[in-house]
Amino acid sequence: MHDNAVNDTSIWSRGMMAVTGAQFLSAFGDNALLFATLAVLKQQFYPDWSQPVLQMVFVGAYILFAPFVGQIADSFAKGRVMMFANSLKLMGAAIICFGFNPFVGYTLVGVGAAAYSPAKYGILGELTTGDRLVKANGLMESSTIAAILLGSMAGGVLADWHILAALSVCVLVYAGAVVANLFIPKLAPARPGQSWRFTPMTRSFFTACRTLWHNGETRFSLVGTSLFWGAGVTLRFLLVLWVPVALGITDNATPTYLNAMVAVGIVVGAGAAAKLVTLKTVARCMPAGILIGVGVLFFAMQTALLPSYMLLVLIGIMGGFFVVPLNALLQERGKHSVGAGNAIAVQNLGENTAMLLMLGLYSLAVKTGASIVGIGIGFGAVFALAIAGLWIWQVRQK
Question: Is the model's pTM score more than 0.70?
Answer without folding.
Answer: yes
